[in-house]
Structure formats: C-alpha cells, structure tokens
Amino acid sequence: MGSEQNLCASTGVAFNKMKPYLAMISLQFGYAGMYIVTLLSFKHGFSHWIFVVYRHAIATLVFAPFAYFIEKKIRPQMTKSVFFKILVLAFLEPVLDQNLYGVGIQYTSATFAAVSLNVLPAITFIMAVIFRLEKVNLKKVHSVAKVIGTVITVAGAMTMTLYKGPAVNILWYTHRSSHQDAASSSAGQHWVAGTVMLLLSIVGWAAFFILQNKTLNEYPAPLSLTALVCLLGTVEGGVVAAIMEHRKSAWVIGFDSRLLAAAYSGIVCSGLAYYMQSVVNRVRGPVFVTAFSPLTMIITAVLGAIILSEQVHLGSLIGALIIVFGLYSVVWGKSKENSAANKLAYDEERAQELPATNKDIQGIVDADIIETTVKSKSHQKKNSPHEGP
C-alpha cells in the first residue's frame, strides 16, 4: 500500500514538472494547424486585417465569461500602469504581429512562415537580456552557449532571408495545379519583402512575451489578462482594419474557410495560447515559452506539402538547420543556468537553516547554564549558617 502511494506521489510530481513542456508542445500543433487554415482562407480572399478583428472578437466572447467567474476572487484591481501595459500588449501581438504575419505568409508560404519562427527564441533572448529578465556572465559556460547560440540563430535567419535556392520535394506528393504555380510565382516576386514582414512580426511577438512577463508581476490573473488583451486587440485591430480595408463586402463571411480560420485561430491560438503562455511565462520565463517553435516548422512542412502542395526551398532548409543548432545551444545554456540557480538556492537555504539550528542549540545550553547557576546559589543559601543579630 505504501509503495503504491509513493508511486502515485512520484508520478504526480513528475507530471507537474512535465506540464510546462506538454503545454508548449501542444501549442505548436495548434499553431501549425493555424498556418494551414489561415493561408487557405487568405487564398479565398479573406482580408488579414479583418481576420485579426474576427479572430480576437471570437476569443473574447469565448474566454471573457470564464475569466470573470474563475478569477473573480483573485483578480487584482486595475491600475493605470497595468491598463497601459495591456493596451501595448494588444497592439504588439493582435495588431502588429498578426497583420505583418498575414502579409508575410501571403508573400512566402505557410511552411516558410513556420520556419521563420525558429528565430523567435533568439530575439526573445536578446530582449530578455536587455530588460534584465536573463543574465549573461561570459565567465560561465552556459552563458557563452546562450550568446553563441543566439548569434548562430540570427545567422540562420539571414540565410533564409537572402538565399531562397531551388525547391526541394520533401514528400512524394508533388502534384501542383496551374493556380498554385501562378501563386508561387507571384509570391516569389515578393519573397524578400515577405521575409522582412515575418521577421518584424516575430520581433513584435518577442516584445509581447517580454511585456507579458512584466505585466503578470503586477496583474497575476492570466485568464483575465488573456480576455482583456483579446478585447482590446479587437478594438485596436478594428480601427486599423477600418482604415486599411474599405470594401464593405470584405467584412461579410459565411460558413466557409474564413469563419473556420477566425474561429480556430481565435479559440486555439489566441485564447488558449495567450492563457497557457501566460501561466508558463510567469513560472519559466519568456525564453522557455519560445523554445519549442522548431516543432511548428516540422509539423507545418508536412501539412503544407500534403494539403497545400507546397515545396520547401533549399535556402529555407539550410537556414532552418542553422537556426535549430543555434536554438538548442541557447536551450542547453538555459537549462544549465537553471540547474545552477536551483543548486545555489538550495545551498543558500541550507546555509540559513544551519545558523538557526546552532543558535537554538546555543540558546538551550545557555538556559541550562542559567538554571544550574540559580539552583546552585539556592542550595548554597540553604546550607549557609544562620547569622543572628
């Protein structure tokens, strides 16, 4: 019976440790599906400006009730500082990142958009160092690994940007229609511009994670923060869409790929993703949250080849390999740093406990000495001869 309880306890502890990893890995599958669905909707004429508005409107409607009731007792009071941070968060991710991404994915491909995400951890790491969420000590091996990995990752991103190369068939499915060939030719003319748009969107996304981490310190209610970001993202995105998209017909959607893209992206990649990233970001930091993006590249490449008949170009493959190598140099350094920090915290805790224990022992000894002295004096007083007048 005792062994079964110990096994259940150890299993529970192991599962709790794995939760952040499982959460981030599952999100990569969600993002991969989003890249495919959104690109299909864009090819059917869905405006990415309007897509952003509908996406976050749906996320707000779904998650706001949960946020209101679940975090009703723990939600802190809104301050001007927190509200301003949420306004900026809503601009960085729902408006800036996703609209630039929408342009970039149309100018390149779903697979390339996923590949470009591999540079996200490096950019996040650089920003985390600037805003003192990450420490760099070049005398430590793990810090050197993080710096070198970041440089390698940036080099891989530059390779993807400047060198396209010939197409590479990663699967046996190579049938391409004339419409797809025409779309590919059109996208090829704007490849560099699309790549720049994607990289700028990633910078906005990295800044979002940095500010999200700081906001959670003042407003530790991740579900409410998610709902507020989606709500303000809907408002800000609506203003931008009204300026950029003048066709009234573009706002009309039916039960088609456009509604599917907005609903799927809103629920999975805005609502769920913002919430899960908030929880993990608060515990593990922004670099950990972004460390799993290469998995998205693999999933999207397979889905893109099967569903969209996309071809991966040699420059993308070379750049992706360089980025993955650099990325996991950063991840290795980060893991070693966490291990060293945990060991240091444990040693400091032990060092604080020992003096307290010694102090307690000394207090007991001192009390015994005082008690013995009092008893001795009392005994001497009783045995001394009585002095008369």
TrEMBL record:
Question: In which compartments does the protein localize?
Answer: Membrane
Q: Cite the SUPFAM superfamilies for this sequence.
A: Multidrug resistance efflux transporter EmrE (SSF103481)
Annotated Gene Ontology MF terms?
transmembrane transporter activity
- State the membrane topology: Multi-pass membrane protein
What is the similarity comment for this entry? Answer: Belongs to the drug/metabolite transporter (DMT) superfamily. Plant drug/metabolite exporter (P-DME) (TC 2.A.7.4) family.
One CC-aspect GO term = membrane
Q: What is this protein called?
A: WAT1-related protein
Pfam families for this protein: EamA (PF00892)
Residues crossing the lipid bilayer are 21-42, 48-70, 82-101, 107-131, 143-163, 191-211, 223-244, 250-275, 287-308, 314-333
Matching entries from InterPro entries are given as:
EamA_dom, EmrE-like, WAT1-related
Keyword annotations from UniProtKB, A to Z: Membrane, Transmembrane, Transmembrane helix
Lineage summary: Eukaryota, Viridiplantae, Streptophyta, Embryophyta, Tracheophyta
Residue ranges of every copy of the EamA domain listed in the record: 21-153, 194-331
